[in-house]
Amino acid sequence: MVLLYPNNIKKEYTKVISHANRGMDLEYLLELTNNYYLEHDIAYIYKKPTPIGIVKVNYALGKIEEAYFQKPSTLDYNGIYQSYYIEFDAKVTHSKTAFPIANVSPHQITHIRHIARAQGIVFLIINIGSSYYLLLGTDFLDFIDHNSRKSIPFSYIMTKGYEIKYNYNKGLDYLAIIAKLIGDEANGKIKIN
Predict the structure, then answer these.
(1) 66, 89, 162, 186: which could join 177 in a potential S-S bond, CB 3.0 to 4.6 Å?
(2) What angle do CA 45, 51, 70 make, to 5 degrees?
(3) Closest CA to 108 of 71, 163, 79, 149
């Protein structure tokens, strides 16, 4: 891309696109939200660290120089809300038409099945452009179990999922949706796990 600066000076630059950190903005928003929940005694939701094995440490510098992932991590976040166990993962897609199922690894799909079977509340928070959706694990599993597609159309996510509105104080207040679903489940309107 070429930019024109004052005095018609031309500068060229190339934007480097890295997929490694594409979920960092979403993770940052969730960190703010989870801190709000903690500070206001609403819920206790934490980001789980990825288990690593340390191979080499430079004690003089206080630095890990070589490490490896011990095992694949499950979902990114877990905790407790109103005596309900909650576990979810944050996912980002840049597709304009669908959410690639490959964004959720096979061991994560297995884990979603286990949490749902154990009556925990499990879901995905999916960032689509400037929108955020909560898709229950049961709806995610229902789609992959009954479709041969390699991606979930946005129309399915918008129909089955719940849009999470940004709140200046609370961030991405996903628990507002969970609270409503818990109430609907208590009234027999919906099953969330």
Answers:
(1) 162
(2) 155
(3) 71
- Strand segments (E) across 13-51: 44-47
What are 60-100's pLDDT values in tens digits? 887 877 776 666 678 999 999 999 999 999 999 988 899 99
Q: Where are the domains of the chain?
A: 21-186
38/51 Cα distance (integer angstroms) = 24
What H or E segment, with its residue span, contains residue 186? helix 174-186
CATH of domain 21-186: 3.40.1350.10
Q: What is the pTM of this model?
A: 0.77
DSSP state of 149: -
3-state SS assignment for residue 101: helix
Q: Helices 106-117 and 137-146, interaxial angle, to 10°?
A: 120
